[in-house]
Amino acid sequence: MLRTLSIQNYAIIDELEIDFSARLNIITGETGAGKSIILGALGLILGQRADSGVLVSKDRKCIVEGTFVAGSKKAIKQYLVDNEFDLQEEVVVRREIAASGKSRAFINDTPVTLSQLNELSSLLVDLHQQFDTLEIGDTDFQREVLDALAGNGELLQSYMVVYRKWQETKKQWESLKDQQLQFNKEADYQQFQYNELEEAAFKENELEDIDAELKMLSNAEGIKTMLDKINFELQESESPLVPQLKSLLHQVHSYEAFHPGLPPLAQRLQSLQIELQDLADEFEQVSSQVNYDPVKIEQLNDRLSMGYRLQKKHGVGDTAGLIAIQLQLGEKLQAVLHIDEEITQKEKESARLFEEAGKLAKKITAARVKEVKPLEDKVNKLLVQVGMPNARIRVDVRADELREFGADVIEFLFDANKSGQFHPLRKVASGGELSRLMLCIKSLVAQSIDLPTMIFDEIDTGISGEAAKQVGIIMKGLALKRQVICITHQPQIAGKADAHYFVYKEKVKDTIKTNIRELKTEERVTAIAQMLSGEKPTAAALENAREMLSN
């Protein structure tokens, strides 16, 4: 419920604060006094668009703040938790508008977006303004009314879980069929590419190794000549290095016992001779392995050419790239073999979920259909109460394909004059008729679900007398379990208030300002009497006002 509303620097409101009761709050005042301005300010903290033109004084901000009591409403507490706001019993919503037109919003002192403000406001307040009746002509709203009265909440949740799974599975099934079609188009070419690479059977780094080997073979003659020459100089020339070193070593050995410096030198010379002998042996071994082989060169060139051609074809630069392409093609071809099995599986799962959703949808439809006659009877009875004795409503439930909220198309049809001709509400009902019809429907729905604070702006337009009294009775009934705030010109409705607020204009320093105050009992008598007979109420009007209050 809305406990307190504070408004500063908005339109012709300089500063005011209203403390609302938890039941039926009635706001009255002369036309133009500023009743709807108060609702306009309230609309700012409910997420409506802001305009810097509403600022009275351009040198300070417009601030509107509402304090709501969450009470036991789980949806509000869950919203605060989900959005990481401070979880408190009171929810403070504030909107600030600067002279520049820049607007900021806060929930429990945490900055928020207008989108977040709208989400929360839908849980806090049901705002029904004078011309805000188009919602009743919306098929979603009409379905929600029927579901609320039928108690379809949990059943609908179960249905929607299954329905969404079915939609997702169906989407996957259709995607697999599209893939299969694409696979079939590409399968022959992919098989050819795979076979080509499989036949080539490249090993890791093979092309790089072939390239290195070809360079060696192409220079084999030069390499062999160089190796043989080195080996010749080391071991076979007229003065070969290895035998010379061996001879020198023998000479040193002959005298090493006679000088302490010779043994180390002899050891080093011996190491050098052994190392040169090893080098000579290795040069000889390498030389024996190097042979110019034109046949092998041709074979390697052919293999390398094939590799380069496949690299260019597949847009890769090494052997690893070709091997990766082969693996990818293999996986795709394998997927083609398995996709039929996946399609069959998804098709069966989709059919199962469709059947399950269909069964739940039938239960939902049955509950809706069962509620149609009681809803028509109750609304038509209430329409008589609110001054529309010739009006009738009919609820049309037609079978449809499975949708997010079941398998029905629901539409409220209306006949204003007992003509027997029923047409969609949105096409034939006037604004005043829609307002009263909305009140009748909401009063029924309120018995089934926990609606938030309900605010009505001049819903009584076009009625008076007994019809206005009946509207007041309906609102009084609504307020037994929830807060209701209503702006009205009808004394019959004002007389039902638990708290009566009077909006008035006053002159402050040559400036006209709007203000509001809660009326005491005798003030209420006078205000209602003035609504009955004018500014100077008669004794009969005063007596009539007292009777209204006592009833």
Automatic annotation (TrEMBL):
Entry-linked CDD domains: ABC_RecN
Domain of life: Bacteria
Alphabetical list of Pfam families matching this protein: SMC_N (PF02463)
Gene3D superfamilies linked: P-loop containing nucleotide triphosphate hydrolases (3.40.50.300)
Swiss-Prot/TrEMBL keywords: ATP-binding, DNA damage, DNA repair, Nucleotide-binding
Location of the RecF/RecN/SMC N-terminal domain: 2-507
Record flagged with keyword rRNA processing: no
Similarity remark: Belongs to the RecN family.
NCBIfam families per UniProt: recN
Functional description taken from the UniProt entry: May be involved in recombinational repair of damaged DNA.
Annotated protein name in UniProt: DNA repair protein RecN
Lineage of source species: Bacteria, Pseudomonadati, Bacteroidota, Chitinophagia, Chitinophagales
